[in-house]
Amino acid sequence: MTLDADWAERWIRRTADTVAGRRDELTELDRQIGDGDHGENLVRGFRAVVAKLDARDGQDGATEAAGPRLVGDVLKLTATTLMSTVGGASGPLYGTAFLRAAKVTGRESIDTRAVVAMLESALEGITVRGKATPGEKTMVDAWTPAVDAAAQAASEGGDEAAVLRAAAAAAAAGATATIPLVATKGRASYLGERSAGHEDPGARSTALLLGAAVEALAERSA
């Protein structure tokens, strides 16, 4: 399966569908240790991205720009839209992640090495923007094992699909592993010891996002 701009667009559309379907779950997780708006914010943000993709693809009367479609173009559009439409911490963090990822995927298709670089760049953007490190009960606790697993899968000769699957599985495990942690970063840190016993909503949405990247592999282009 070629990881091209069509795949990147399917990934974003699948993410929009996934967060919409899991909005209540994400909202409840955030209500337990945060502001309770994570689910709604992500739904609004990714719906806005899909609307822009539709317009760019001519489904709303617009004409697609001439020239080759690059993976990074899709990711950059996603980044700028999330930054302008999503409030709270998730918009800037995910927006920065996609913006950094776009900078290393400015090509018509990406190979295994570029997939790892994309994930590494996304994590770097999040850690720089959020100033978080592993163990603080944030989305970094899902992104870090995802990047490590992707790099390991690539070093073992895995193809692009294997690398993405490894990343998604590690992110899901990392999100679950945040449950016993005591938050020391972000709004959840205000709860101190009471934050233990709850899964971090940003880590969970990270797992959903990377899972959507895998699901997009099997979907056909519209």
From TrEMBL:
Gene3D superfamilies: 1.25.40.340. It comes from the Bacteria. GO terms for molecular function: kinase activity. It holds the Pfam family Dak2. PROSITE patterns: DHAL. Residues 6-215 form the DhaL domain. InterPro entries: DhaK_L_YcgS (IPR012737), DhaL_dom (IPR004007), DhaL_dom_sf (IPR036117), Dihydroxyacetone_Kinase (IPR050861). Keywords: Kinase, Transferase. This is Dihydroxyacetone kinase subunit DhaL. It comes from Myceligenerans crystallogenes. The gene is dhaL.
